[in-house]
Amino acid sequence: MGKLLILGTVAFDAIETPFGKTDKILGGAATFIGLAAAQFKAKSAIVSIVGDDFPQEYLDLLKNKGIDISGIEIVKNGKTFFWSGKYRNDLNSRDTLATELNVLADFKPVVPPEFKDADVLMLGNLHPSVQLSAIEQMQTEPKLIVLDTMNFWMNNTLSELMQVISKTDVITINDEEARQLSNEFSLVKAAQKIHEMGPKYVVIKKGENGALLFHNGEVFFAPALPLEEVFDPTGAGDTFAGGFTGYLAETENVSFNNLRNAVIQGANLASFCVEKFGTERMQDLSKEEVDRRLNQFKQLTQFDIELR
Amino acid sequence: MGKLLILGTVAFDAIETPFGKTDKILGGAATFIGLAAAQFKAKSAIVSIVGDDFPQEYLDLLKNKGIDISGIEIVKNGKTFFWSGKYRNDLNSRDTLATELNVLADFKPVVPPEFKDADVLMLGNLHPSVQLSAIEQMQTEPKLIVLDTMNFWMNNTLSELMQVISKTDVITINDEEARQLSNEFSLVKAAQKIHEMGPKYVVIKKGENGALLFHNGEVFFAPALPLEEVFDPTGAGDTFAGGFTGYLAETENVSFNNLRNAVIQGANLASFCVEKFGTERMQDLSKEEVDRRLNQFKQLTQFDIELR
User: Fold this and answer.
1) Do A267 and A293 form a contact (C-beta atoms < 8 A)?
2) CA B226/CA A188 separation, integer angstroms
3) Separation between Cα atoms, residue B26 and residue B35, nearest integer Å
């Protein structure tokens, strides 16, 4: 059983989909990552920041999942980061309605002492300089540093982002971001260029079309489970990252073969996340449900052609 | 070794992609289906029609692949069906520049006597009444009737199309067509509705995002192999159908498990088709290349998680 350190936002989200809308509910990258990782026997901690408007109930929820929250700073008289978005009819694109940084604007992450030797460091989507600070606070080199980022940082803080990328083992981005970062349309070529920036492993997320894991000229593909209904895609990418890193921290094995398994674990958990609003589905997800769906993933992709 | 009967167009194509353009070259659904099926040890025949402007060289090419072309009618003073299209930059959409039906306008298919007991009947994309005529000429019921069609027939000849659909075991359509035919956005729900129209198996093709095989509440997924370059998508869907049916005719096994293998065989061959213009890549494709890439497909999707 290894240790997983998660850096990322803990936040309020307000979401509108074709199927309904929410008031301010629990959100944030680190929240989704932590809830997904909690499905595995790893020791996890979140480093983040909230205001004192953030309900104790939400903090207790994370704590009760076994997540160490001593690294979540609570700012007195501060307001918690808030994001609001509205999905279009196909659920594949969304418009951001509001982004209020609030306490996130001055976030100086502090890694708890007993997680400075974490096996896996998961850097959720944040300002690259915040991500860099977490890397620098580690006392022993993690077995695996995993980076999530987005086009916003490519547009606005590219040189800092490139510095973080050069220090990571795995980068997870979506197909459009991979194309932007590499200036290549073919995802195979994009992954090659991103390899040269530092990461040994490149994960390209394609939403309902699955995720690709590139390594050393090889590629592995995890489909998204075809679902009758996708209700709310919010947090699916973070849930994927949480399943991916939680599994790797539990197994303490960062071989390519085990990263393949980790991609499936991530895709499996993400398939639950989208079934309800926000974190709702992840809050009460049982190991039995997870395992049953892992079996469906096997059924979905495994075949038995005798090669001639 | 079983028999495969292929109904479909044999035609001229003129193609423009971001990478170049062709004059009139060999094209047509039955051509792509036949060339793909020729990779398998099945006895195949094509039923189609061309004008006497169609080069003997093209007919010899099919014959030399072992395909029975006695069912290809050659119309004296007739002109061969011609299609011309231009792909947009992402290669995922195309505009039709010309469709000249010519001899196809009066096509009355005639199934050769020794293929009236074919194990697999592959109905390439054509007017539903032509497809229906081929079904009606069979003397013994095929183990499997596979139907390819497109939105054009849904828009213009829906009641005839529904009649054909009711008589087929497998339908292969793309995601947009599945949504149109079923009036459901979710592909899982779309497949359920299409099952009720007749086909026990529903294959939904998603281009570079692979293909789904639905059966009896279960689903199997074949990814498209991530390629460095996609040069020309023309014929990829037909090549998929040819690999699918050629493999099934060779193995004479139409169980769900073997249909899973067939979907992989189809996806594998389609990954070659798109590497060059038209049928060029399929003309000289060796068994060794096919097998090597089948191995890549295994690498691409197989994983080994120990279920708890």
Assistant:
1) no
2) 6
3) 12
A14 closest CA partner among A74, A85, A65, A75:
A85
- CATH number for the domain formed by residue range(s) A3-301: 3.40.1190.20
B101 burial (CB, 10 Å; 0-12 / 13-18 / 19+) is middle
Residues ≥6 apart with Cβ < 8 Å to B56: none
Beta strands in chain B (DSSP E): 3-7, 11-17, 20-21, 25-27, 43-51, 68-75, 82-87, 94-100, 120-123, 144-148, 170-174, 201-205, 211-215, 218-222
SS3 A282: helix
Say which amino acid occupies B151. Answer: N
Check if A187 contacts B (Cβ < 8 Å): yes
Specify which residues B170 forms β-bridges with: B146, B201
Type and span of the H or E element at B257: helix B256-273
Task: Residue A5: name the closest of A207, A215, A242 by CA.
Answer: A242
Rounded to whole angstroms, the Cα distance separating B59 from A118 reads: 66
What ipTM, to 2 d.p.?
0.89
Encoded amino acid at A213, one letter:
L
Q: What is the pLDDT of residues A267-303, one digit of tens each?
A: 999 999 999 999 999 999 999 999 999 999 999 998 9
Q: Which of B213, B222, B292 is nearest to A302 (CA)?
A: B222
Of A189, A206, A301, the CB nearest to B228: A189
B76-112 pLDDT, tens digit per residue, is: 999 999 999 999 888 888 999 999 999 999 999 999 9
The structure tokens listed for B202 are 């529903």
Q: Which residue type does B269 have?
A: L
Task: Check CB contact under 8 Å for A212 and B226.
Answer: yes
What 3-state DSSP class applies to A205?
A: strand
Please report, for chain B, the start and end positions of each structural domain, with discontinuous segments joined by +: 3-301
Q: What DSSP letter does each residue of B146-209 carry, written as one string?
A: EEE--HHHHHH-HHHHHHHHHT-SEEEEEHHHHHHHHT-SSHHHHHHHHHHHS-SEEEEE-GGG
- A216 Cβ under 8 Å from any chain B Cβ: no
DSSP, collapsed to helix, strand or coil, labels residue B290 as helix
Low-confidence ranges of chain B (pLDDT < 50): none
Residue A82 is inside which H or E element, if any?
strand A82-87
Looking at beta carbons, which residues of chain A come within 8 Å of B287? 308
The residue type at B89: N
pLDDT reading at A46 higher than 90? yes
Question: Are the beta carbons of A209 and B210 separated by less than 8 Å?
Answer: yes
Nearest to B261 among A227, A287, A303 (CB): A303
